[in-house]
Every structure is written in C-alpha cells, then in structure tokens.
Amino acid sequence: MPHNPVAEAAIVGAVRCDLRDPHGRATDTAVRVIWTADHLNAVRRLQPVLAAAAGRHLARRGGTGT
C-alpha cells in the first residue's frame, strides 16, 4: 500500500485517547502496542532462520510437521 499521511492522521486521531492519559503521558495500551510491534518485527526478521531450523529438526525426525 502506498504511504497515506491523511489515513495515518485519521488512525492516530481515532486512537489518541487510548494512547495518552489526561496528563499527556503514554498509557499502558501505548506501551503494549510499541512492545508488540517491536516483537513482531523481530519475529519477521527471524522467520527464515527459525523456519529453516524447524525444517532441519523435522527432517532428522523423519516428520513433515503436518
């Protein structure tokens, strides 16, 4: 999808109340969103390595994983 600043602003505006408390500090929800995004990005980077290791393990066991 192409970058869309208008759509981005609309999404941020819609969830802003969930991401900041009345004093402007980040809420638990905001921290969880950041934490989750960082971990998903790490998993995406590691996916080829993890899939290859799992495939080698299954091959040694003689299994297919299904």
Broad structural category: mainly alpha
Give the strand tally.
0
C-alpha geometry: elongated
Task: Write down the overall mean pLDDT.
Answer: 80
Strand content: under 5%
Low-confidence blocks of residues: none
Order of helices and strands: HH
- Whole-number tally of structural domains: 1
Distance between the termini: 33 Å
Rg (CA only): 20 Å
The biggest beta sheet reads: none
Approximate helicity band = over 70%
- Number of alpha- plus pi-helical segments: 2
Would you summarize the structure shown here?
The chain is an all-alpha fold and about 70 residues long. Helix content is about 75%, strand content about 0%. The protein starts with a helix and ends in a 5-residue tail after the last helix.
Give your account of this protein's structure.
The protein has 66 residues and is an all-alpha fold. The chain is built from two helices and no strands. It has helices spanning 5-19, 28-61. The radius of gyration is 20 Å and the shape is elongated. The two termini are 33 Å apart. The mean pLDDT is 80.
